[in-house]
Amino acid sequence: MSQFQSEEMYRSIFENAIEGIFQTTPSGSYLNVNPALAKMYGYDSPRDLINGLTAIGNQLYVDSTRRGDFVRIMQEQGSVRNFEAEIHRKDGTTMWISENARAVRDDQGNIQYYEGMVEDITERKRLETELHASEQSLSALINNIDDSIWSIDTGYRLTSFNTIFAQTFQEQFGVKVNIGDVITHLLQPDWRAEDVALYDRALAGEKFVVERRYQYQQEERYYEISYNPIRTNGEVSGVAVFSKDITERQRATIALQSAMVAAESSNRLKSEFLANMSHEIRTPMNGVIGMTDLLLMTDLTHEQREFARTVRISGESLLVVINDILDFSKIEAGKLDLDITDFDLREVIDNTMDLLAAQAHSKGLELAAFIRPECPLELRGDPGRLRQIVNNLVGNAVKFTSTGEVVVTVSPVSETATHAVLNFEVRDTGIGIDEKGQARLFKAFSQADGSTTRKYGGTGLGLAISKKLVNMMNGDITVKSELGKGSSFSFNAEFEKQTIALKSIAQQDLSNLRVLIVDDNATNREILDHHTRMWKMRSSMAETGEQALQMLRAEANKDPFELAILDMQMPQMDGLMLGRAIKADPLIAKTRLVMLTSLGNQIDNEELKKSGIEACVLKPVKQSRLFSRIAEVMAGHMPVQRKKTQTGTLSLKSPIQPPANLTKKPVRILLAEDNIINQKVALGLLQNIGYGADVANNGFEVLSALDLRPYDVILMDCQMPELDGYETTQRIRERPDCTSMRIIAMTANAMRGESEKCLEAGMDDYLSKPVRLESLRDMLARWMPAEKKA
Question: Which of 209, 286, 658, 758 fits as disulfide partner to 745, beta carbons 3.0 to 4.6 Å?
């Protein structure tokens, strides 16, 4: 930096500083001052200040003795630091300043000039004055405070106390206290040891707060007492004590704790009641719907079949009402949660429309749905609850519309890279709702008017439940309607966006992909080979893990395999072992790995990761699901292997199509069910899909049956007398020969946490009553032993 630049920089600092800066001659005449100092002293410009007074002139200082002190210190020490003085400003007012100055000398030590800085401390001095005044009134304040305040010295002698302290001792103990009294001598003998220990902690330098309970005659009182060491010259010389009477607060806390215990007990009882209600209702409903299904499978006259269909429809309608009541009860108990998973928006809307199409068409209504093209379709959320909301709104629209149309429109509201907010509108040309009716719509057990319930039926819970579900999706639901001119219900809902769009995966070109299929089952190999060749992949097959390793290594430097599809259950070397062996060999470690397993979601994610498995496909393999997983893996995406519920337990819901020949396989099934009607229902459903089963009435009979013969699958009712399904399952899992046995819960408890409870007990999966024929068929297809399905 040049000299010119340095001078310019210092000139800029001098001119723009907020503190006053000055230079004076040794006699005190100003040589130079900056604008800040001139303004501080009340002058228009630095030149006016220089011409107006000197830095140490009598006209500047209010107290001439301070002027003398300044001169003396400068002469003796050559500088001053933090020198405070009250000075006159140009307009006659005064201010306080703090100065730092020094003498600048030449090479011979002669003073050339003084330079320094000035700070305006008027406000600080004012505050100090006020503080001094407040300190004088502090004593009066302490004596009027509601808390007891006192201090002691190292000998426990009182050195000060306020009025309330003296009054408390006088009233509670009948003792008049004085300065110098040993406080520990004033207390009851049984309290002294504890008090001395507390004072000693404070005298040792510890600051702390304790709560103490005292029994005064017939009254129990609580105090919050703060012990604070007093230090003099760094040494503890005493203790200041502050005591606050918290008796009322403590009583309120005790009452609140009692209320919380009562509330928790009430919530627990409510949850138990809901679970019991769910069980007690669904158990006979299982019999009604299940037996009707079986009846419809027999040879009936036309009239008998119509009667049976009517019973089935009535049972399903009753189940809808029951589900509404249970859902609302879950909302009231705070036990309604969303189950987050990937879904396709178009599929959810289309499925809902399919369910209601027959009802709409029977009334001559046009039923239509339109998803605007700009809406993202591949989303993450709770498709079941979204379907429930849309089904509720569309169902209501169809119910209350006699002519015209019901139209569903889905439009985008906002979108980021990770989330999308969509608007769902359900518009009808039905009876409409007046303003008074609209105000009641979303309240529980309420409909637009009393005649609505009589004419159209319903619980009045559907919209209240829908509103809660929409709120859980970070949205809100509204209605616009005019009596006789139809209604428009609209709600917003927020969803996550899937990491990889399903559509892009489906369209991905995987032709010419080099694939190795590894499975010890010949049929499975042939099926997989057919799938991959249909997708124009180049596939080869291996029967064992050792053969697979040989083939991978042989082709590594020629035409390497890019993907290997591994079966989990293979003799000698299973899929996990093979995966680890592949990833451990640098020559073939780049091969992507997909696992096929009949173990569902029981393989731990960490174990999969260690073995290099990038995706799992559940057997029996669906063609579309396998293609999606391969596409995801080859696109570099690691799909979520399983979905967790909010409690962290694995969710085992995944639709699997049963093989066509499932009903002909010799599978050993044990049915554990104490209800005679439900036994008949389950046996009838099993017989319809080609299975027989032994029956046990309780857990002890199950254990006895296992002593006689092994079973492939146990259908386990959870609520049984003597020994329930949970305890029975735990005992079965303790048997070395039963660890691989499939246990499927069949329970009438539909409350949140039931599936988790079943899995924690050691069961493999969960069926909710009433059990449908399709659900039972799919469940058996999912968990049937591999050799029974080959």
Answer: 758
DSSP state of 476: -
Q: Is the omega angle on the peptide bond into residue 412 within 30 degrees of 0, that is, cis?
A: no
From CA 527, how far away is CA 443, in angstroms rounded?
55
Is 517 in contact with 565 (CB distance < 8 Å)?
Answer: yes
Q: Which of 308, 319, 285 is nearest to 678 (CA)?
A: 285
Cα(473)–Cα(421) distance, rounded to whole angstroms? Answer: 10
Taking the C-alpha atoms of residue 222 and residue 322, their distance in angstroms, rounded to an integer, is 52
Structure tokens at 530: 């057919």
Partnered with residue 158 across adjacent β-strands are 152
Pairing of strands 713-717, 669-672: parallel
Structure letter (DSSP) for residue 558: T
Report the distance separating Cα 595 and Cα 610, nearest Å. Answer: 13
Average pLDDT over residues 262-279: 64
Is residue 276 pLDDT above 70, yes or no? Answer: no
Banded pLDDT at 35 (limits 50, 70, 90): very high
Tokens of 120: 């305006």
CA 644 to chain centre: 13
Q: In what order do the strands lie in the sheet with 208-216?
A: 158-161, 148-153, 235-245, 219-232, 208-216
What the block records as the tokens of 400 is 């209350």
Residue 351 token pair: 């499925």
Q: Distance (Å, rounded) from C-alpha 726 to C-alpha 717?
A: 9
Whether the pLDDT of residue 548 is over 90: the answer is yes
The mean pLDDT value for 418-425 works out to 94
Give the tens place of pLDDT for each residue, 503-544.
444 445 688 999 999 988 776 687 788 778 888 899 999 999
Spatial separation of the C-alpha atoms in residues 217 and 785, rounded to whole Å: 77
Band (pLDDT 50/70/90 cuts) for residue 265 is: low
CA distance 177 to 157: 11
**Neighbouring-strand partners of residue 238:** 153, 230
DSSP state of 109: S
3-state secondary structure of 98: strand
Q: Is the peptide bond before 620 cis (omega within 30 degrees of 0)?
A: yes
**Residue 554 — pLDDT band, cuts 50, 70, 90?**
very high
Helices (H), 187-301: 189-203, 247-296
- In the block, tokens 């303004």 appear at 39
Which residue type does 203 have?
L
How far does CA 562 lie from the centroid of its chain? 39
